[in-house]
Sequence to fold (699 residues):
Amino acid sequence: MFRSLVLLAALLGASFLAAAQSQVQNQSQVQKWFPPDQLMTIGVYYYPEAWPEAQWERDIANIRKLGFEYIHLAEFAWAFMEPTEGDFHFEWLDKVVAIAAKNGLKVVLCTPSATPPAWLARKHPEILMVNAEGRAMQHGAREQADWSSPVYRSYVEKIDEKMAQHFGSNPVVWGWQLDNELSHYGQGISYAPPSQIKFRNWLKEKYGAIARLNADWGNSFWSQTYNDFDQVQMPNPKELVAGANPHAMLDEHRWFAAEAADYLRFQAGVLRRHVKNQWVTTNFMMSYERVNPALSQNDLDIMSFTMYPVTGDAYRGELGFRMGDPAVVSFANDFLRNLGSGVEGPMELQPGQVNWAGVNPWPQPGVIHSWIMRSFGQGARLVCVYRYRQPLFGDELYHKTIVEPDGVTLAPGGKEFVQALQEVQAMRKARVAGAREPADYAARRTAFINNFDNRWDMDNHPQTYRWNTVDHWMKYYRALKSVMAPVDVITEDKDFSKYKYLVAPSYQLLDQQLVARFTDYVRNGGTLILSSRTGQKDRRGHIWEQLWAQPIYDLIGAAIPKYDVLPNGHEGKITASGKTFGWGSWADILEPRPGTEVLATYADQFYKGSAAAVSHKLGAGRVIYIGADSLNGELEAEILGQIYNKPSRLPLNFMVDWRDGFWVANNFTDANQTIPAPAGAKILSGARIVPPGGTAIWQ
Ligand code: GAL
Fold:
């Protein structure tokens, strides 16, 4: 079986290669699909296959009446498009597309690869993913297929190609989504034979010789040395008696993300054999745990993500569980806007209670509208809501939607969408073409470097259960929003020089070249903000044969002779600007060199009086190093307030951004907030005082 899989993989490899040659559309074409004067367009998911045909006309006409501009179809409809093998049926979908056209709605179609039909799993059980416990999954939910399987890909290729042949020239079809939230959800990654084969092939390609892999994985440790690539297995912590090899784990993450991107490239290539003048995207999961959208930026015309902020997590204050975390969502928009064509937006947005979290509370009134407008303020060009009708059956029957279960009465979340639809219309009229970004806002534009390797390595090997990389990053993101800095989340390959501020929190893995780029950036006048754990390891995840994190000492103007971590129930203290802050997860203890200024000091533990944060002048710029990860992000916000010279910071989680001549303020705090608008400002939505969950928009 192993041999025939390899052979099949090699054969299919040839057709994947052809697919990979297809190109994304150029910028001007993308702008035609998303005309700048339309600002943002809002659509809705509809599943006609779940409703009587007699209701399609009514539902779609109502969707249009509410003001939606497109409908999203066919995402999970494989069993309806190919009910038995090779028997393709698109008549029903043709009817729906025609009804959409009659109502002036555009259509987004979706490849159904997340939900293979029952006949396929029965005929080819080898396509099913195998989870970390070694169990093969069964047909009946979604994302149960291993997309490394050449057999699975051959079936995906057939259905995608048939769909593209059928709809690729239809002018009503505006664009395509590939798959759905590419992941295996709670089952993590697949350890099935096709994945094992592709992982090994990827390693062979990367290392060439097994000796190099042994060196980079540090395989002299615990006799892990391999004689041959065929001995290598995907590291599976559930099957490892003691700690996993962190370098192997890092490569497994890298491979999984590369393989997911390869799968998207494959599907995009199949569509583009026939698709004319229609865009292609996928809906990345907002948390991006394992999949890296940056790897797909040259394969997708636009970028999109799924956004479900309110999932019952009581992460802050009294009302946090009803409003979700504005930092994570905002970060997603700021990241995707800086990839590929720059056109992005949430493809799925929560319309009310969901069904899949541990507890699914009702969102704060107003907050759904606020999420839409937060995305607008950050430059999103599209929003789509999940979904129009509440299912009467199936796993998601508790999920709120635009209309109530009767199919016609507008639900509370639907009303918030209608409000947004009307406001977008009003803003299109009020828009002043060529509006210039206000100078003081533009002057604070900050690049935030996002490198997935750092996150994967620290989360695989955290050194303390209190460390959470994304939480740490979000403390910086929130702090940047509290000084009203517009943020571009960028990948490391981008040019830093156009930014006055560069933030690279917990940048654990680096090399001398990156240190040199940082140094040049600062010498030329940039402000670089680094934090806990930076520079401890090389790109393989090895620590340096030097003093601890020594490669960054000249850059930050300090040594880091030690770090500390505290168990739950213990809180370390830090003083800065006469205030006291707590920390618990990580503290780099700094030893500033002469000339380096101390911004914060440890106030207890045996290293009381040592520096916790420093500022180092270098050439025309400076480097800030914040060594401690504070409990609630207030220390980071305090220091950034000084750096950006913004003593009157906004409260954390009250976020304000500018886009196309409009200021948008979103209040995710527990208290009323006042917008920072001048007296003569024309308020288009909300009022000067914004309640929790509320929004204000002004010109
Ligand atoms: C998303 C998923 C959708 C739907 C939705 C329900 O994560 O992409 O297909 O299941 O959750 O909230």
